[in-house]
């Protein structure tokens, strides 16, 4: 690898505060001055069928509306990520929206960009919710072919 060629860092984002915190933390810690990485920000947009499910009368009729909503969410997430990058003077981030399950999308983005680091937020789910929903960060930590950075928000004191 040429010395001028930067390593890739992928940050996975969704509409949660946790993922935006992970992006902000990554920008603050790796992109403050003379960053060693090329930044790729990836949002996995669920498919309408994965949200609606495939069964039931009327499913076909609601699919376009669900897909439209998912597109709007993706646009908001991407806009928020771009604004955050600009506020931190990061102007060359590549932002991608890829349709599919976040676990697969992020692991595939690591391969596609030959990333040396994947950064993801942690929703802080308990054991039962994590077992039911599946943890994107847990999956990526086992399946991504790079270092996985799981950024947790500090606990707020009441």
Automatic annotation (TrEMBL):
UspA domain sequence ranges: 9-152
InterPro entries according to UniProt: Rossmann-like_a/b/a_fold (IPR014729), Universal_stress_UspA (IPR006015), UspA (IPR006016)
Pfam families membership: Usp
Protein name as annotated: UspA domain-containing protein
Native source species: Hibiscus sabdariffa
